[in-house]
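Q: How do we represent a protein-ligand complex in a form that can be generated token by token?
A: Start from the inputs.
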Amino acid sequence: MTGQDISIDMKRVPRHIAIIMDGNGRWAAERGKERSYGHQAGVESVRRITSECTRLGVEYLTLYTFSTENWKRPADEVAALMGLVLSSLEDEIFMKNNVRFRVIGDIARLPQAVQDKLNETMEHTSGNTAMTMVVALSYSSKWEITHAVREIAAGVAEGTIDRNDIDDEMISAHMQTSFMPDPDLLIRTGGEVRISNYLLWQIAYSELYFCDTFWPDFDEKALREAIACYQKRQRRFGKTEAQVENNE
Ligand code: IPE
Ligand code: IPE
Ligand code: MG
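Then emit the structure tokens for the protein with IPE bound:
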């Protein structure tokens, strides 16, 4: 299924899509398999959705891959996930799709081999221009905000930041996501209707889309459905419907 049958306006494709890729474990359980089998199938979904996003002209795709809270999972599952991150970071996929790779999160907590591979992939793909794929690893929003507050507080203490200059923009500049615009569309697969500590600052005005499909089943058609739903909405940013229609 390529999803070509779902019509979307190519001129109004979201610039930045963020995804909470949930439901791998339940997908595997339905098939009587181990959770790691679901994570493996999830990697295939990442490949499909990345290619489709580049075809659609999405500029940034931010994927929640492993949260700060996920460190609490059984050690064997954490190890399987780290192994998958390592094995799935093949240059070929990024080079074939002309995708730049970036990572956000508390990278220092990851195994050294994973850190090395992440740095290597970021370097190799830094010149690619079709899309930026951002992987959130050992990431949580509260961790990120805490980190930013510490940095700003240090600046104030050293006298390099005047506390009266602290504003929305400065705070954004101290986030891990400072190199990209905020998400236009946030998708969560897997049926849960929650944010799970993801991009809390950045999704202040994102359009939210929740679907029941487990991540391994989320395909091109499902993505196009999410974009079509996004395109039916009017983003008002506090203004009235009439103001937005009149471009005020
Ligand atoms: C999401 O799938 C992937 C990660 C959190 C790593 P889950 O592993 O949370 O799958 P479910 O929610 O248990 O089905
Ligand atoms: C959110 O999924 C994190 C990722 C998709 C990486 P979880 O499955 O960990 O979320 P909760 O704990 O059910 O909220
Ligand atoms: Mg889950």
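Residues 20-22, 64-67, 69-70, 192, 194, 196 surround IPE (ligand 2) (CB under 6 Å). The two ends are 41 Å apart (CA to CA).
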